[in-house]
Every structure is written in structure tokens, then in C-alpha cells.
Design a protein that fits this description.
The protein is built from 3 helices and 17 strands. With 274 residues, the chain is of the alpha+beta class. It has a single domain, classed as Immunoglobulins (Immunoglobulin-like, Sandwich).
Length: 274
């Protein structure tokens, strides 16, 4: 009598046998999507592999799809004009574009993004001579764009637009320093569902952040719904002998939020929390 393998074993074999084809299909779909995004955001400009010049880091499997940490490292000798961060399969793939000014001490950036489904993240840097260099990383996460806000809505609105700046304990004029800027804002994506009203929460998010040190631009960031709740940026800048680190943020309802911190360690430690 012919013996058949157990149902569980048969299912496992079918899954294993189908994996190479699935992987090839996924890779082809990812490549096709990147081609589309390339055409959408960079037109006919060639984009080169960055190699060791630009590295993008993110968790392989995110703990929270609505708050996925992303770190982009740029070789110090490579001074970028701008840096674009894309979450390929998000409803709005271009999460942010950062343009660097004379007070920037490097083109690296750390932030947090929403991830809607398993996807590649791309970092594309534009050099001073107009070359485009690209690095990518794959992230397993889903539902980040529609996930409810972490904070209570009333609490979030009460703290709307509050800005916190973190500076190092010591600052030396002209020597690179790392700072962190956090803006309290729900950054509603327009895809989140209000269980009380049974309607979608309208999109309401930070669309631009400008940071200056001693009156000179560190960076200008154009941001969108793929940036997480309470936008958070970590970057390097060149402190001046005086003056302040100034932050100006604007949201999609036309509100402007500002905050400045004197470029001294004592003032940084006394900056109010969000």
C-alpha cells in the first residue's frame, strides 16, 4: 500500500520548495518599485551605489512599526548638499529631505519613521558636485502608518509644538558637536482611525524643520507623514563662540513653533522636557 507523507510534513515541503520563487518575485517587485521611485523623485539622474560612503541602519525586525529608528552614516570627508530618506512601500515614500548648511559638521542623521509594510529603506545623498549616491536596508514591520498615536490626543494637543534641544555637556567653538531636536507633535498620517468618532483622523504633521547655530544654517528638513509621531532628529553641527541653537518648525495647518537654546552646556541642561 502506498504511504503518503504526513500533512504537516507535506505542507512544510511545499513551503520550502516555493521559497526561491517567492524570493525572486519579491526581489523583482522591490527592484521595480525602486525604479518607479527613482523616476518619481530623481527623474533621469543616475543614482550610484554608495558603498562605504553612505550607510543606512535600521532594525531588521522593528519592535514598533510606528517608531522605527533609522541611522544614516556618511563618510566625514563626503560633504553632502542634501540627503533624502525613502520608505519604499509607504503611502508617501519620501519621508524627508535634509539640506545641509555651512554650520553642519557632517551629513549623517538619525530619526524615526513609520513603516507600513515589509520594505526597503533608501538613503540618497547628493554631493556638492551633483552626484547621487544610494544606500539601502530592508526592514520587517507593518501597520506603522495607521497605528494609533502613543499619547492621549488631549495630552498631545496640550503639548503641541513644544521643542526640546539636547546638547553635549561641553561645547568648543569650531569643533563638531552632536545635538538632538525633538518636536512634540502627533504627526497624524491621515490613515489612523478614531475608534470614538468612527472616522479617520485628518492628516496633521510637521512639514519643515529649520535648525541654525549662531545664525548660520545647520540644516533645512522637508518632512512628511512617514516621519513618526514627535519628530526626532540627531545631527552634528559646528558651535559658535556665542549665540544660540535655534529651531523653527512648521506644520500643515500653518502653525509655526520656535525654540532656541544658548550654546552653553548649562543652558542645554536646563532646557525644558517635552
Amino acid at each position: 500500500m502506498m504511504r503518503y507523507p504526513p500533512i504537516g510534513l507535506l505542507a512544510s515541503l511545499l513551503i520550502v520548495l516555493s521559497m526561491p520563487g517567492l524570493a525572486a518575485t519579491d526581489a523583482a517587485e522591490d527592484a521595480a518599485r525602486w525604479d518607479m521611485l527613482h523616476d518619481m523623485y530623481f527623474k533621469d539622474r543616475p543614482v550610484e551605489e554608495a558603498g562605504a560612503l553612505i550607510r543606512i541602519e535600521a532594525p531588521a525586525r522593528a519592535h514598533d512599526a510606528a517608531l522605527v529608528p533609522v541611522r544614516i552614516e556618511v563618510e566625514p570627508a563626503l560633504r553632502l548638499k542634501s540627503l533624502s530618506l525613502l520608505v519604499d512601500k509607504n503611502p508617501v515614500p519620501l519621508a524627508a529631505t535634509f539640506r545641509f548648511g555651512p554650520a553642519s559638521a557632517g551629513s549623517g542623521i538619525e530619526t524615526r519613521v513609520r513603516v507600513n509594510e515589509y520594505t526597503n529603506l533608501h538613503a540618497v545623498g547628493e554631493t556638492q558636485d551633483g552626484r547621487l549616491l544610494m544606500a539601502a536596508v530592508y526592514v520587517k514591520a507593518a501597520g506603522g502608518c495607521s497605528a494609533p498615536a502613543v499619547k492621549d490626543p488631549q495630552e498631545a494637543m496640550a503639548r503641541l509644538g513644544r521643542i526640546k534641544v539636547k546638547l553635549p555637556d561641553t561645547l568648543s567653538p569650531g569643533n563638531p558637536a552632536t545635538a538632538q531636536v525633538m518636536v512634540s507633535h502627533p504627526n497624524s498620517s491621515g490613515l489612523q482611525f478614531d475608534q470614538v468618532s468612527r472616522t479617520y483622523i485628518p492628516a496633521h504633521y510637521i512639514r519643515s524643520i529649520v535648525i541654525r547655530a549662531g545664525g548660520q544654517t545647520v540644516m533645512e528638513a522637508d518632512t512628511d507623514i512617514s516621519i513618526s509621531e514627535d519628530p526626532n532628529l540627531r545631527f552634528s553641527f559646528l558651535p559658535t563662540g556665542g549665540g544660540s541653537l535655534e529651531v523653527v518648525a512648521q506644520d500643515t495647518k500653518g502653525a509655526t513653533f520656535t525654540h532656541s537654546v544658548p550654546l552653553t552646556a548649562a543652558a542645554a541642561k536646563g532646557d525644558p522636557a517635552l
